[in-house]
Amino acid sequence: MPRPSAIVLCIDDEPNILVLRTALLRMAGYRVHAAIDGQIGLEIFRHEPVDLVVLDYDMPGLMGDDVAKEMRRLRKDVPLLLVTAFQDLPVTCTSIFDATLIKGESPTVLLEQISSLLAVRQPSLAASR
After folding, report:
1. Angle, alpha carbons 117-124-84 (nearest 5°)
2. How confident is the model at residue 25, as a pLDDT?
3. Could you report the per-residue pLDDT of 41-79, keeping only the tens digit for each?
4. Quick one: pLDDT at residue 51?
5. What whole-number distance in Å separates Cα of residue 20 and Cα of residue 107?
6. Strand runs (DSSP E) across 1-129, as ranges?
């Protein structure tokens, strides 16, 4: 019997990036929820199954670290991957996340990081890739 694919929640306030990242993840076999801001992302996180979150940092309203803090409060076991254009965020911010990527990294790097984080969380999800 085939294993279910992981569910990734992508949160980014830049529509083009959100559409491209969502398409990439779906092509890689992931099921994807997409949110254009942190508040919508939190609502999805509260009400839908999510195995991993790919989260932008600089967004209007709730910043990525604020969203991540609330997600940690709700479900500590879900890996959080920060994708940001900022290269010098303070450790107090980045320590909330399981991993950080700089925007502009290749899609391969993003997919490898997601696979790695899922393997740590739940080996059966990563094996289904």
Report:
1. 20
2. 95
3. 999 999 999 999 999 988 888 888 999 999 999 999 999
4. 96
5. 10
6. 7-11, 31-35, 52-56, 80-84, 99-102
Ranges assigned E (strand) in 12-111: 31-35, 52-56, 80-84, 99-102
| Beta-bridge mates of residue 9 | 33, 53
The DSSP code for 103 is: T
* Sheet with 80-84: strands ordered across: 31-35, 7-11, 52-56, 80-84, 99-102
- The answer to whether 62 and 88 are in contact (CB under 8 A) is no
Alpha carbons within 13 angstroms on the beta-carbon side of residue 85 total 6
Architecture of domain 7-127: 3-Layer(aba) Sandwich (3.40)
Kindly tell me the number of DSSP H helices and DSSP E strands found in the chain: 6, 5
Position 123 pLDDT exceeds 90: no
pLDDT exceeds cutoff 60 at 125: no
